[in-house]
Design a protein that fits this description.
globular, 392 residues, binds pyridoxal-5'-phosphate, 7-stranded mixed sheet, 41% helix
């Protein structure tokens, strides 16, 4: 299996068949498992084997299939599935940190990630230093001999800054710090984060892994030692586990993720190029465009620009007009979905941030984040052009 390409792993990795030899993965909707004898129960609580289960909060065959499949896809030794992407971010950080530890984090983060780093960790005595994630000198200056972990989104939400995983990992590893990457925008399809130096990769499975807007989920990926020794004890006792039904949906999502995400990224590249050439918007931000400051890094790190672009309509009024005139693209705050979705970050996902922080992060009043779906690219471009034409 190690030599299989991602598309093959996405379909076959992790399968556990029951005595009925079903084709499609079975959903084990059971919270617990029975033991033949009291001695068996005792033995399993002392040390459960790879395919021995105790309680669904700890693990379950359907959940294990999902964990093994996404771990194989990412090139990680092991994974732990979580109830949401935020349970994964929180679990990765909180399971390994204690009072007095120091963390360096990129400043441009999804609002809930920022809440964990800024509000939750600091409440328990963890010191957090924020840096401009694209500035390697800033990382070098902030990382100290006692830094325990670094955290960043490999592509930031919603301003699409791309962070150099290899370079930041080198700086972190020089002091023995663990590199934790929120890799949602890179997707498992374009990610090679672990080979590039990341120790821990976190996904919100809600996004491209499901890809059809049905369920919340997440996963923490890393070495077997980190997942089994650090993450699992924390997660199984604090309760942020994934449900078996969700794991089954995510398994089915993974089967098509290569095809979906590549098609979505191709369309995103087309739309970004066309809208930039039209020149009707203040700014078009897409890591796959030559005009993007980290375009060369994007090509080297991911080989594609991803499925999300951001455009600046100039003012909030213009952005709202654009959003309200769209007919195919829906207004919502998910991303990675089969349906194209537009979001106004300044008034929704990043509303909580003070104005000066928004300005520093580039979350301008006119910024619209566009998650590109599976619709026909020409229809999407026509929809966007028609809406942009109405801005005035
Ligand atoms: C959506 C998202 C999350 C949170 O995932 P949920 O499944 O909604 O909890 C975390 N990080 C990034 C970058 C995201 O886009």
């Amino acid at each position: 299996m190690k030599t299989w390409k991602k598309r093959t792993k996405a379909v076959h990795a992790g399968i556990r068949r029951s005595q009925y030899n079903e084709v499609s993965e079975a959903i084990y909707l059971t919270q617990g498992f029975v033991y033949d004898t009291a001695e068996d129960a005792e033995a399993r609580f002392i040390q459960a084997g790879e395919d021995e289960f105790i309680y669904a909060r700890y693990g379950n065959p359907t959940i294990a299939m999902f964990e093994d499949r996404i771990a194989a896809l990412e090139g990680a030794e092991a994974g732990f599935a979580t109830a949401s992407g935020m349970a994964a971010v929180n679990g990765a950080l909180t399971s390994m940190l204690r009072a007095g530890d120091h963390v360096v984090s990129a400043r441009a983060l999804f609002g809930s990630c920022l809440y964990i780093l800024e509000e939750v960790l600091t409440r328990y005595g963890v010191e957090v230093t924020f840096v401009d994630g694209t500035d390697l000198a800033a990382w070098e200056q902030a990382i100290r001999p006692d830094t325990k972990a670094v955290f960043f989104e490999s592509i930031s939400n919603p301003t699409l800054e791309v962070i150099d995983i290899t370079a930041v990992s080198k700086l972190a590893h020089a002091v023995g710090a663990t590199v934790i990457v929120d890799n949602v925008f890179a997707t498992p399809v374009f990610s090679d984060a672990i080979a590039q130096g990341a120790d821990v990769v976190v996904y919100s499975a809600t996004k491209h892994i499901d890809g059809q807007g049905r369920a919340l989920g997440g996963v923490i990926l890393g070495t077997r030692e980190f997942i089994r020794g650090t993450v699992e004890p924390y997660m199984k006792h604090t309760g942020g586990s994934m449900s078996p039904f969700t794991a089954w949906m995510m398994l089915k999502g993974l089967e098509t993720i290569e095809l979906r995400v590549r098609a979505q990224a191709d369309t995103a590249q087309k739309l970004a190029s066309a809208l930039e050439a039209d020149g009707a918007l203040t700014n078009v931000i897409y890591p796959g465009l030559a005009s993007h400051p980290q375009n060369a890094l994007t090509q080297a790190q991911m080989g594609a620009g991803g499925t999300v672009l951001s455009v600046d309509a100039g003012t909030q009024e213009a952005a709202f007009k654009l959003l309200n005139k769209l007919e195919i693209v829906t207004i919502s705050n998910n991303l990675g979905d089969a349906k194209s979705i537009a979001t106004h970050p300044a008034t929704t996902t990043h509303q909580r941030l003070p104005d000066d922080t928004k300005a520093m992060l580039g979350i301008t009043p006119g910024l619209v984040r566009l998650s590109v779906g599976l619709e026909d690219p020409d229809d999407l471009l026509a929809d966007l052009r028609a809406a942009i034409g109405q801005i005035g």
